[in-house]
Amino acid sequence: MKKLSDKKNWIISFLFAGIVLAFITLFFNFTLIDSQMQILSPYLDNTVGWDMYYYNGDEKTSLTPRELFETQNEVYYLSRTLSESEQQTGITTIKLNYTNPCALFLDDVLFYTNIPNLTGEIGALDFPQETFAVPFAGENITVTLPPDYVGKVLTLASMNVEYSGLPMIFLSSIALDRTEVTAAVNRIIIPAAALAIAALLLIGLWFYTGISGKWNFSILLLLLAALVQTFYYLRNLGYYLPNNQLFDIPMLGLGRPLFVYMPMIYLWLQMDKYRKIYAPLLLIPAFFTTLFEYLGLLGVDVWDLIYLSWKLLIPELILLIIFSVLEMRDENSVFKIFVPALSITAVCVCGLYIGSALFSDGFYTSYINSMFAQLFTLIIPNIIINWTGTLLFLFCMLISFIELIRRSINFQTEIQALSLKNQLAYDNLRLMNQSSEELAKMRHNVLHHFNILSDLNQQGETLLVADYLKQITNDSEKILPMRICEQPIVNAIVVSALERAKKAGIDMTYQINLPAELSIKDVDLCNYLMNLLDNAIDAAAMLPINQRWIKLTMHVRANYLYIEAENSRTGEVLHDAKGNIISSKGKNHGYGMKTMLDIARRYHSDLQVDILPDRFAVQTALLLLIDQNSD
């Protein structure tokens, strides 16, 4: 039954992870574009199809990209023929990311320049010196190409004035530009909005923990990570108001390290056994990474240290996983959520990687490849950093909400247990009053009984004396005992069961030897014993009156609480297709055995059920002195 329950839990977990992954994939797609602008910018060792040259008088002299890079105050030209394939991909514009004077020609016909009153033709251009005073601030230049550009020669004329360099040239379209702008904004706005919503939820969650009577200050770590990362994204958007100094707060520039390390510190605070060992392995790298990032914001040249600190992120994650697994093995409830969630996510990512390669265009396969390729380059692995922070943050939020739900359920369970204990106390008081009344009656009749017995004895009626004594004994046995054992919960439940058995005509006997305190939760002890005795009473009550009996045994041996109940039975014991015992009472019944089994396994035990022709026995041994937080 446990294996089937675990299988069901894993199926539900994978289903939930799949839904989350589907939502992330859906919104992630809004940050991508189906096609990209065509990059025609030359490199130092690659002309990218351009014919590069300059004119020395009437003589045309070729240039290499490196020579062009080093030219200064000299007009140079780049020419290439525009093909039909470019028109088929929807190219309608040419974009220049430019800070220098320039002019564009199509088949030697000027159709754009950023120099007023420019005259001349290719090979005889002269950019007036007075135009150099025009501040070229690096704005992007977008020029619409004539509709009949296919087969014509595109020529760019320019001059390096303020510094040497290579021109940045792109072929694009208005629609593609809009799509790229939208995707770029979505890459910032979607995560920023999601994190802002998460921050609001965390604020509400934190206040709820306070209302519940126990402030959970570790949630503030996640709240700080969410808020800082929200404004970190908005800061990168470049949206500034003249009178708004919010984005100038230095801490907002620390969004990257805080977003990664705050969830890791949150997990560290949830550790029990390995917290001290893991502390320096986490806190020292977190401190120095954040310090280096802050110094970088202040203009200190610490790029090498920042690069090195982020390269150590993978070993830090491996250590986190190792200690998380160790905590899970020690029954830490937080890591019993975190480790499976991490495992399920890894399986889903592998499935996405393989599925994209086999059944799609391979985009996600290439994306994941490029993400891990950053580990082997001389750049900071921003993609890995962002996804690491995002996943850790999601896992920690999930843990926070599950722990809140668990705490709420435990609170409700404790309320139910308290209500049950109150009911048991009320029943015990009622039975005590009833027994007191019966004892008072017997005490009142004792002298009368003695007189009758004395008279019968004087008359020599020994048989009548024996019958009379037997009747008095039977009447006294009908008075319920009020003290079964030292343990109050067991005492109350067994006394209540004795009353029910008495009313049902069941001979119930017991052998109970327990201390006053047991390291088992009251609610678990109540649920187990009440279900056990309810089932026994119901089964025995189905037999003829002279065949009804129950025997209960409870004692503690070697840190185990042994519980056994035997009862007479008749009829067939029903089982389902999986071999589990089911109730003969019909629908909405039969949960008693499952509840008992769950409680037994919670205390590292199981149920042993013996079914004989005339009797039914259930026994278990619950482990005492266990960590009460493990459930």
Helix-strand category: alpha+beta
Number of helices: 16
Shape: rod-shaped
Rg, nearest Å: 41 Å
Task: Classify the beta-strand content into a percent band.
Answer: 5-15%
**Low-confidence parts:** 1-5, 627-631
Q: Structurally, how many domains make up the residues?
A: 3
Number of strands: 15
Overall pLDDT score: 80
Estimate the helix proportion, in percent. 40-55%
Distance between the termini: 18 Å
Biggest beta-sheet profile: 6 strands, antiparallel
Strand order of the largest sheet: 3-2-4-9-6-7
Your description of this structure?
- The protein is 53% helix and 14% strand.
- With 631 residues, the protein is of the alpha+beta class.
- It folds into 3 domains: 42-166; 188-411; 481-631, Heat Shock Protein 90 (2-Layer Sandwich), CATH 3.30.565.
- β2 (51-56) and β3 form a beta hairpin.
- The longest helix is centred in the middle third of the chain and has 77 residues, at 382-458.
- The protein starts with a helix and ends in an 8-residue tail after the last strand.
